[in-house]
Design brief:
Elements: H1 3-8, H2 11-19, H3 49-62, H4 66-88
Length: 89
């Protein structure tokens, strides 16, 4: 799949490919490979009710899962921390 093709494909075409059990990850990962499932470790995290309410509202606004919100925000925070350490020298 080329970059040119990625810009031209419709969501309907992606849906058709997914329904045909074709791998459509490349349309969403910007060329990055998804980690193998055996590389994923499940963990438990405790949240307050108010934090869950905020996470759920954010997920609803972004139309993504609560898990995706948590992963996205954690990745952002870790990257910000790493950048601040680099700037400190």
């Amino acid at each position: 799949m080329t970059k040119h093709k990625l810009n031209k494909i419709s969501i309907e075409d992606i849906e058709k490919e997914a329904l045909q059990n074709k791998n459509v990850n490349g349309y969403f990962t910007k060329g990055h490979k998804m980690p193998p499932l055996n590389n994923i470790q499940r963990v438990n995290v405790d949240f307050t009710r108010s934090m869950l309410k905020q996470l759920d509202q954010f997920a609803k606004e972004l139309n993504i899962s609560r898990q995706a919100v948590v992963k996205t925000l954690l990745t952002f925070a870790i990257n910000q921390h790493r950048m601040s350490l680099k700037m400190k020298g």
